[in-house]
Amino acid sequence: MLNKKLVLATVSSLLLSVTSASVYALTAEEQKGLDISVESKKKDEGWKDSSADMLMILKNKQGQESIREIKIKSLEIKNDGDKSLTIFNKPRDVKGTAFLSFSHPIEADEQWLFLPALKRVKRISSRNKSGPFMGSEFAFEDLSSFEVEKYTYKYLGDETVNGEVSFKVEQYPVDENSGYTRRVVWIDHSEYRVQKVEFYDRKDSLLKTLTFSDYKQYLDKHWRADIQHMVNHQNGKSTELKWSNYQFKTGLKDSDFNRNSLKRAR
Length: 266
Prior knowledge:
Blueprint: H1 2-24, H2 28-42, E1 49-59, E2 65-75, E3 83-90, E4 98-102, E5 110-115, E6 120-123, E7 151-161, E8 164-173, E9 182-188, E10 194-200, E11 206-218, E12 222-232, E13 238-248, H3 259-263
Antiparallel strand pairs: 1-2, 1-13, 2-3, 3-4, 4-5, 5-6, 7-8, 8-9, 9-10, 10-11, 11-12, 12-13
């Protein structure tokens, strides 16, 4: 009797395993979308730390512009998301403003904003991550590093973007607090660089398009786009980021990225 029960238990366990595997099995399109995204992430590993200058050009619906000068420092974290520190230097009304971001693959990202006029550090709630960053068309969640675990995937086919034959991959955010139902990303065949991203809002309407251009290679491995252009199709505004003066492996440490560093950031 005991043996019979043991056999039944074993069979039940095996059936449960088979059922679970079939529930979580990926389709061919899902697996390919995941594989492409993993390879894109893998190809850029090993930069350790970096710093760069950036111009943020805000343009309203009427075409009027305002320009901000920014310094960005980043730190690659093994087995976790990257850390970044964004420091506003000009104009005077935003000078001294600093933004600290800790990205995580599975847990909610941690983000803080130091506002010198208020002389205090404000933590950005994960529920507010879809809000605009400093009046730009980039949301707080757009400033986190890309982590494979943050999305599920589906390969949609190949298309040519910016003159590059690219994989077209749909990404579905895992985080329920995301402001997007999905992103469509074009990743080129030649170097697995992101060429374009479309963002769809919570009603699944096209909200924004981000394009990357003027890629340059550093350390014979790492590609960075000198220009990122975000267009908001719903309000007619845009934000362009112009990057320059990239430096890698400068010796930045984890202690350079904490809440205390926000107030003394330069």
